[in-house]
Amino acid sequence: MLKSIAGGVAALAMLLSVSAAQAASCGNDASGFNAWVDNFKRVAPSKGISPSVLETAFANVQYNRPTIRADRGQKSFKLSFDEFMKKRGGQAIISRGKSMKSANAALFANIERRYGVPAGPLLAIWGMETGFGSFLGDQHTLSAVATLAYDCRRSDYFTEQLYAALQLVARGDLSTTAKGAAHGEIGQTQFLPLNVIRYGADGDGDGHVDMVRSRADALASTANFLVGHGWQRGAGYQQGQPNFKAIQGWNAATVYQQAIAYIGAQIDG
C-alpha cells in the first residue's frame, strides 16, 4: 500500500513537472501564450519582481501579432547605403538635425562636457529612430516584450528584456500603458528595457530616467550608451576611427552604422 502511494506521489510529481515545463515552453503562435504568462508570473517573484508589480504590469498584456510580423520582416537593413538613406529620409534628418542642434545648444554642450560625445551622432540616432521624438511607436511595450520573450526565436534574450521592463515599472520609469516600437524599444531614441537599466541617465535632474517625455534624459542616456561601448572623448567616429566601434554597438546593421556616422558628420560640420 505504501509503495503504491509512493508510486502515485512520484507519478503526480512527474506529471506536475511536465505540466510546468510545458507551460514554460516557448511558442511560435498565440496558442500557448497565456499559459506561458501564467508560468512566468509564478516564477518571476523568485527573480525579485513583486506580485503586485506583476499583476499591474500584465493587466493589459496580450500576444502582439504586429511585433511578430515586424520581427520576421526586417528588410531595410539589407539596402545599400544610398537606398537606406533615401528610405530613412537622411537628407531631411541632416537639415532638421542642424536646426535641432542650434535650438538645443545648451543641452548638447552639457552632454558633450559630461560624456565627450558631440551632438552629431546623437542627433543622427534621434532623427533616425523617432524623427526627433515625433513618433515613438504605437505598440504596447509590455505586450511586445512579453510576446518576444515567449516567441522561440530569441526567447532567452527577450526574457531578460522583460525582467528589465518590470524593473522599470517597479521604479516608476515605465508606464504599464506605455507604447513604443514593435520590439519593445522605449522613448525618443528607442532603448530596449535592459539598456535603460544599464545606461539610462537622468539628464534633466528630476531623479527619474524618462525616455519618453524628457529629451534631456533620452539624449544623455544615448551618450552614456556610446561611452559604455567604448566611446573615446575627442576621437573621430567615422569608419576606421576609434569611435566607430561605439556606433557599431548601437545597431548591428552595417548600413545603419554608416548612416549614423555620415549624418552625424554632416550635422557637426
UniProtKB/TrEMBL annotation:
Signal peptide residues are: 1-23
Residues covered by the Transglycosylase SLT domain: 33-238
- Gene3D superfamilies, sorted: Bacterial muramidase
**Keywords assigned by UniProt?**
Signal
> Keyword Nucleotide-binding: yes or no?
no
TM region positions: none
Q: Which Pfam families match?
A: SLT_2 (PF13406)
GO molecular function terms noted in the UniProt entry: peptidoglycan lytic transglycosylase activity
- Give the matching InterPro entries: Lysozyme-like_dom_sf (IPR023346), MltB-like (IPR043426), SLT_2 (IPR031304)
SUPFAM superfamilies on file: Lysozyme-like
A biological process term (GO) from this entry: peptidoglycan catabolic process
- What name appears for this protein in its UniProt entry? Lytic murein transglycosylase
Source organism per entry reads Rhizobium rhizoryzae
